[in-house]
Design a protein that fits this description.
The mean pLDDT is about 90. The protein has one domain: Vaccinia Virus protein VP39 (Rossmann fold), CATH 3.40.50.150. Helix 1 runs parallel beside helix 3. The chain has five helices and seven strands. The chain has about 190 residues and is an alpha/beta fold. The chain starts with a helix and ends with a strand. Helices cover about 40% and strands about 25% of the residues.
């Protein structure tokens, strides 16, 4: 819990400068993800876990029926709300913890967790929650900062969750994160 309090404090105090400090770096990740993602009509409900200031949500909001963003930082969510105001009828922003997501089982088609996992005291618990909210064969895109995680370490963490299978790995030199596309296996 102490680690989460530090994360909340960090992002509640840096929200004003976050886009300026990390915007370019984050946009490279977003572009890489979106250029490798196949959009289908089956993708109706998306969740951006650790949505921060809403930049990624703004890029995907018109590609789906409904988008949910969650974050631990109240101030990050206020900024996200300001950015997505014109599309607020098809979005929800929730102050919530990635390790305890207040969403019912099997209802999300696609989740994004971009530059989130390093902030979690228990990444395995997050992966269980992520799997729980995804529908069967739903997709999860998870990124991890390379200077914190070696590719094999983040792959091992994800593979420890028997409900997610890594379907694609992207490790580009000019992108700060390792990007993993995953698929939820059937509940059977």
């Amino acid at each position: 819990m102490e680690n989460k309090k530090l994360v909340i404090t960090k992002y509640n105090t840096t929200w004003k400068s976050y886009d300026e400090l990390y915007g370019e770096e984050q946009n490279k990740k977003y572009e890489t993800i979106l250029s490798n993602l196949t959009w289908t009509r089956k993708i109706k409900r998306i969740m951006d876990i650790g949505c921060g200031t809403g930049n990624f949500m703004n890029k995907i909001i018109n590609k789906t029926k409904y988008t949910v963003g969650i974050d631990l930082s109240k101030n990050m969510l206020k900024e996200a709300k300001r950015k997505i105001r014109k599309n607020s009828w098809k979005t929800s922003l929730i102050l919530a913890d990635a390790e305890n997501i207040p969403i019912k089982n099997n209802c999300i088609d696609l989740t994004f967790a971009i530059t989130l996992i390093q902030n979690l005291p228990n990444p395995e618990k997050f992966l269980i929650e992520n799997s729980r909210i995804l529908r069967n064969k739903g997709k999860a895109i998870i990124t991890a900062i390379k200077r914190i995680y070696k590719p094999e370490d983040i792959e091992r963490i994800i593979q420890s969750n028997k409900k997610l299978k890594i379907t694609m790995k992207i490790n580009l030199e000019d992108v700060a994160d390792i990007i993993l596309f995953c698929k939820k296996l059937d509940n059977n």
